[in-house]
Amino acid sequence: MSVDYSKTPLESIYGENCFSESVMKQRLPKSVFKEFKKVQVGEIDLSLDVAEVIASAMKDWAIEKGATHYTHWFQPLTGLTAEKHDSFISPESDGTILMEFSGKELIQGEPDASSFPNGGLRATFEARGYTAWDTGSPAFLKADNTGLTLTIPTAFVSYTGEALDKKTPLLRSMDAISTQAMRILKVLGNTTSKRVMSSVGPEQEYFLIDKEYFQARPDIKLTGRTVFGTMSAKGQEMDDHYFGVIKDRVADFMRDLNTELWKLGISAKTQHNEVAPNQFELAPIYASANVATDANQLTMEMMKKIADKHNLACLLHEKPFAGINGNGKHNNWSIATDDGINLLNPGETPHDNAQFLLFTVATIKAVDVYAPILRASAASPGNDHRLGANEAPPAVISIFLGDQLTNILEKMAAGKPVEALDGKMMEIGATTLPKLPMDMTDRNRTSPFAFTGNKFEFRMVGSTQSVAGPNVVLNTAVASILDEFAERLEKASDVNAEIQKIICETYSAHERVIFNGNGYSGEWLVEAEKRGLPNLTSTVAALPVYIEKSSVELFGKYNVLNKEELESRVDIYLENYSKQINIEAGVALEMANRLIFPVVSEFAASIADTILSIKSVVPTADTAAQESLLDNLNGQMECMLKTGIALGKEIEAALELEDDLLAQAKAYREKVFPAMEDLRVCADALEKITDKQLWPYPSYEDMLFNL
Ligand code: ADP
Ligand code: MG
Questions:
Q1: Scanning 24, 126, 310, 426, which has its CA 20 to 30 A from the CA of 155?
Q2: What is the CATH number of domain 575-704?
Q3: Residues in domain GS catalytic (predicted)?
Q4: In testing the pocket of ligand 1, which one of 286, 400, 452, 471 has its CB within 8 Å of the most ligand atoms?
């Protein structure tokens, strides 16, 4: 599988399985290519004629490469991806076949994927679900043991157009922010840009463990995380893993992973050891939000697949191991024009300063006003272990701007002079900003939402999550503020004066969300409460925010998600939360009763036997140590039994609540989850005192220090 890059230059395989813009340019008639570019920037609608030509070119390309099937690839609300393969064959009456793929088949599919969660939407509207080609994200060839499949990124909607997936609202939110940002750019005198894209670069964290250990741990296998396990004597306290030398076995995995991603045209760029033992990170080069979302889904899939080939298991869960860091996904976000102007770039001209400050304060306001929805977009059962725990940003949303930018905005808001680059006093649109360092030395790792030079980094996102959700919220929230600004600017007689006013007013009104200090400290939580910043500490607390009036209005106004779509999402996510905790609790009980209990009983019996046999030889021998161990074992087993029974009862009670999804999820959060933790305390105590040779599953030490 490994490629020798001295013989096969990387440039020659990069994107070989991607129907990229350059492949299109080569294979499509010029006029069709031109028209398609117009479709991509939203200037015209896609015609069936154009689709017909593209479909035919795609099919020829795919077949030349060895593909036999195509699929409409979509992202249902499970958070995973879905595909159903159709072969290109079309039988002739003489027993031969033609290989066909029509424009219609490219544009729309009808997977009848009726078993995906739809939160009641399809029952209400129409049974069938349809997939629609996302023309902005390139088709690619996906390889598995069935062969190569031409894979077309699509959105998944109901017959009447309700979104049943993660992609549809993302595309709608990209339209919303483009429309509103373009209005601002027009006022600022931009005549060249046609569209504004939101750009996303997700940094993906993960763990690798030996596959044998993965197979031997029912909890990891079924839930992605350990529900039991005591930390080894060594954890991450030595900081010796972070950015350390990459071990050979991991390096082999990374090399093959990169190769597979590069072939797909996914720009894997950065790789390194992370803070926790056996934890790593991969970051691609950013792309437009829909392309980045697709690429990240594929990256996660590839990570698992390539790991398997290397006899490893890739753990993407937000908290596979207690006591050391979990996995996050930093969502780097910016907005840029189709002709390459990053609107969050401080820039070098007076014109840039107006643009940058305007888009920056719009983001600040959006994050402050819509903090609860942004928080909700990062809510997942796995992420509940991180947000608010001492490793990830707290569940309170705040923004890190860095001292320099904060200082500038504070002074401006207070009407105080700020010295500009050219030594003059700074004036919006007339002077240039003092230089903001791109790579700030005081980069703050504890902030959930940090300005990092020319983009914002949303650090709350869970490692298993699709980045679609958080970017839907970011795009829509910022679009709504840009809309407000545009209303004012379009009417203003003196645009620069109005911009200055907007910046000052907006910053003053939303300064409370700026926090440059240590987000992990206890004092910050107290301070945040004083400032009135919301603190939604769990998934169950956060999810209902989606259907509050202000959210319904926001998403409705920009046609991103209507009330029914939002309600269906909340239902699905709540149900998913309950199911996940239910599985975790079930596995915990299984492991306690059927793996731990028998082994510990046996061990206890062997200690009892030892005591008896020692006494039979030396009747006066002191066996206090053995007796104390035996006593301890018995005590902890009793504890395990009791907490197990209590957990079982809580599960039963939660299951009863199936008619009220919120009440059920609350029961899982408030009753089942803590009961599971109680059980863990006894089980982990037993692990600490039981013969390691007997212990029924691999320990943290085995899994984390053995690659
Ligand atoms: P760090 O770990 O220092 O935050 P990384 O290099 O690991 O940085 O990841 C930074 C991510 O941000 C990369 O995916 C990068 O492509 C992305 N990025 C850089 N510039 C932008 C931008 N303008 N918009 C969105 N993402 C960006
Ligand atoms: Mg990084």
A1: 24
A2: 1.20.120.1560
A3: 166-596
A4: 286
Cα–Cα dist 617/29, whole Å: 95
Are 287 and 267 in contact, with CB atoms under 8 Å apart?
A: yes
Ligand approaching nearest to the C-alpha of 274: 2
- Closest ligand 1 atom to Cα of 345: 23
Quick check: do 176-561 and 575-704 share a fold? no
Average pLDDT over residues 231-237: 86
Give the three-class secondary structure for 337.
Answer: strand
Cα distance between residue 422 and residue 397, in whole Å: 35
pLDDT at 117 over 90: no
Atom number, ligand 1, closest to the C-alpha of residue 200: 25
Query: 664: pLDDT confidence band, cut at 50, 70 and 90?
Result: very high
Q: Is 100 helix (H, G, I), strand (E, B) or coil?
A: coil
Instruction: Respond yes or no on whether ipTM tops 0.85.
Output: yes
- Tell me how far apart the alpha carbons of residues 541 and 559 are, in angstroms, rounded to a whole number: 26
pLDDT at site 236: 87
DSSP class of residue 383?
A: G
Q: Looking up tokens 């995995």, which residue turns up?
A: 253
Reported as a pLDDT band with limits 50, 70 and 90, residue 393 is confident
Distance CA 452, CA 15 (A): 29
Give the count of beta carbons closer than 10 Å to the beta carbon of residue 659: 7
Domain ranges of the chain: 10-164, 176-561, 575-704
* Residue 80 alpha carbon to ligand 1 centre in Å: 24
- List CB contacts of 657: < 8 A, sequence separation 6 or more: 663, 664, 667
Output the CA–CA distances (angstroms, integers) from residue 424 to 421, 431, 435, 503, 646, in the order listed. Answer: 7, 7, 14, 19, 71
DSSP 115: T
Tell me: pLDDT of 441 over 50.
Answer: no
Beta bridge partners of 74: 82
Pocket of ligand 1, candidates 177, 197, 203: which has the most ligand atoms within 8 Å of its Cβ, to mutate?
A: 203
Q: What is the mean pLDDT of the chain?
A: 94
How far is residue 474's CA from residue 543's CA, in Å, rounded to a whole number? 16
The pLDDT score that the predictor gives to residue 123 is: 59
Q: How far is CA 221 from CA 115, 307, 383, 484, in A?
A: 23, 14, 18, 49
Report pLDDT for 431.
84
461-495 CB burial, b ≥16 within 10 A, e <16: bbbbbbbbbbbbbbbbbbbbbbbebbeebeeeeeb
Domain at 176-561, CATH homologous superfamily: Glutamine synthetase/guanido kinase, catalytic domain (3.30.590.10)
| Ligand 1, CB cutoff 6 Å, lining residues | 199-201, 203, 270, 283-286, 330, 332-334, 342, 454-455
Compute the distance between CA of residue 658 and CA of residue 670 in angstroms, rounded to an integer. Answer: 16
The domain 10-164 is placed in CATH, from the list 3.40.50.11890, 3.10.20.70, 3.40.30.110, 2.60.40.10, at 3.10.20.70
Query: For 75-110, how does the pLDDT look when each residue is reduced to its tens digit (9 = 90+)?
Result: 999 889 999 999 999 999 999 999 999 999 999 998
The Cβ-side half-sphere exposure at 519, using a 13 Å CA radius, reads 28
Instruction: Output the pLDDT for position 333.
Output: 98
Tokens of 652: 């039963």
